[in-house]
Write a structure and sequence with these properties.
Length: 118
Protein backbone atom coordinates (compact mmCIF):
# COMPACT_ATOMS: atom_id res chain seq x y z
CA UNK A 1 0.00 0.00 0.00
CA UNK A 2 2.37 2.73 -1.20
CA UNK A 3 0.01 5.69 -0.61
CA UNK A 4 -1.35 4.52 2.73
CA UNK A 5 -1.80 7.22 5.37
CA UNK A 6 -3.20 7.14 8.88
CA UNK A 7 -6.04 9.38 7.69
CA UNK A 8 -7.30 6.48 5.55
CA UNK A 9 -7.98 4.64 8.83
CA UNK A 10 -9.85 7.54 10.41
CA UNK A 11 -6.79 8.79 12.33
CA UNK A 12 -5.23 12.19 11.90
CA UNK A 13 -1.57 12.18 12.90
CA UNK A 14 -2.05 15.50 14.72
CA UNK A 15 -4.77 13.92 16.87
CA UNK A 16 -2.32 11.39 18.31
CA UNK A 17 -1.10 12.89 21.57
CA UNK A 18 2.51 12.07 22.42
CA UNK A 19 3.34 11.99 26.14
CA UNK A 20 7.08 12.21 26.68
CA UNK A 21 9.10 11.46 29.80
CA UNK A 22 12.66 12.64 29.23
CA UNK A 23 15.29 10.30 30.65
CA UNK A 24 18.78 11.67 31.21
CA UNK A 25 20.69 8.50 30.43
CA UNK A 26 23.48 7.77 27.98
CA UNK A 27 21.46 5.44 25.77
CA UNK A 28 17.79 5.68 26.81
CA UNK A 29 16.52 9.17 26.01
CA UNK A 30 12.75 9.00 26.61
CA UNK A 31 9.75 6.85 27.42
CA UNK A 32 6.78 7.63 25.18
CA UNK A 33 3.05 7.09 25.56
CA UNK A 34 0.60 7.61 22.69
CA UNK A 35 -3.04 8.59 23.13
CA UNK A 36 -5.28 7.56 20.22
CA UNK A 37 -8.54 9.08 21.42
CA UNK A 38 -9.88 6.65 24.05
CA UNK A 39 -6.84 4.34 23.72
CA UNK A 40 -3.39 4.75 25.26
CA UNK A 41 -0.30 2.77 24.30
CA UNK A 42 2.60 3.14 26.74
CA UNK A 43 6.16 1.90 26.63
CA UNK A 44 7.69 3.26 23.43
CA UNK A 45 11.37 4.03 23.99
CA UNK A 46 13.65 6.46 22.22
CA UNK A 47 17.24 5.30 22.45
CA UNK A 48 20.57 6.44 21.13
CA UNK A 49 22.33 3.81 19.07
CA UNK A 50 25.93 3.34 18.10
CA UNK A 51 24.59 1.86 14.87
CA UNK A 52 22.81 3.73 12.10
CA UNK A 53 19.12 2.82 12.20
CA UNK A 54 17.52 1.39 9.06
CA UNK A 55 15.55 4.55 8.45
CA UNK A 56 18.59 6.81 8.87
CA UNK A 57 16.74 9.03 11.34
CA UNK A 58 19.01 11.83 12.47
CA UNK A 59 18.17 14.49 14.98
CA UNK A 60 20.20 17.13 16.72
CA UNK A 61 20.66 14.55 19.49
CA UNK A 62 22.49 12.04 17.29
CA UNK A 63 21.35 8.70 15.93
CA UNK A 64 18.05 7.96 17.63
CA UNK A 65 15.66 5.11 17.09
CA UNK A 66 12.20 4.30 18.34
CA UNK A 67 11.48 0.94 19.93
CA UNK A 68 7.81 -0.03 20.30
CA UNK A 69 6.56 -1.62 23.53
CA UNK A 70 7.68 -5.23 23.83
CA UNK A 71 8.01 -8.17 26.20
CA UNK A 72 10.91 -10.53 26.81
CA UNK A 73 10.26 -14.26 26.48
CA UNK A 74 11.89 -17.01 28.55
CA UNK A 75 14.62 -17.36 25.92
CA UNK A 76 15.62 -13.70 26.27
CA UNK A 77 14.14 -12.58 22.93
CA UNK A 78 12.02 -9.44 22.69
CA UNK A 79 8.65 -9.41 20.93
CA UNK A 80 6.76 -6.22 20.07
CA UNK A 81 3.30 -5.73 21.57
CA UNK A 82 2.56 -2.85 19.19
CA UNK A 83 3.07 -3.38 15.48
CA UNK A 84 2.09 -1.52 12.31
CA UNK A 85 2.54 -3.86 9.32
CA UNK A 86 2.68 -1.07 6.72
CA UNK A 87 6.11 0.61 6.65
CA UNK A 88 4.67 3.91 5.40
CA UNK A 89 2.27 4.14 8.35
CA UNK A 90 5.00 3.20 10.83
CA UNK A 91 7.31 5.85 9.33
CA UNK A 92 4.55 8.47 9.57
CA UNK A 93 4.01 7.64 13.24
CA UNK A 94 7.77 7.64 13.97
CA UNK A 95 8.15 11.05 12.32
CA UNK A 96 5.34 12.40 14.51
CA UNK A 97 6.89 10.90 17.66
CA UNK A 98 10.33 12.36 16.84
CA UNK A 99 8.88 15.83 16.17
CA UNK A 100 7.05 15.81 19.50
CA UNK A 101 10.10 14.35 21.27
CA UNK A 102 12.32 17.19 20.04
CA UNK A 103 9.77 19.74 21.28
CA UNK A 104 9.70 18.01 24.68
CA UNK A 105 13.52 17.95 24.88
CA UNK A 106 13.67 21.69 24.15
CA UNK A 107 11.01 22.43 26.77
CA UNK A 108 12.71 20.13 29.32
CA UNK A 109 16.10 21.82 29.06
CA UNK A 110 14.66 25.34 28.84
CA UNK A 111 12.84 24.69 32.11
CA UNK A 112 15.86 23.03 33.69
CA UNK A 113 18.18 25.90 32.71
CA UNK A 114 15.60 28.64 33.36
CA UNK A 115 15.73 29.81 29.74
CA UNK A 116 12.88 31.83 28.21
CA UNK A 117 10.77 30.39 25.42
CA UNK A 118 10.97 31.90 21.95
Amino acid sequence: MPNDKLENYGLNIKDIEVKTKIIENQSLKAIIGLNFGPFTVKGFRISKSKYVPDSGEKTKNGELWIVPPSYKDSGGRYHPTFFIPHKELWQELKDHIMTEYEKAVDAHYRKRLNMPEF
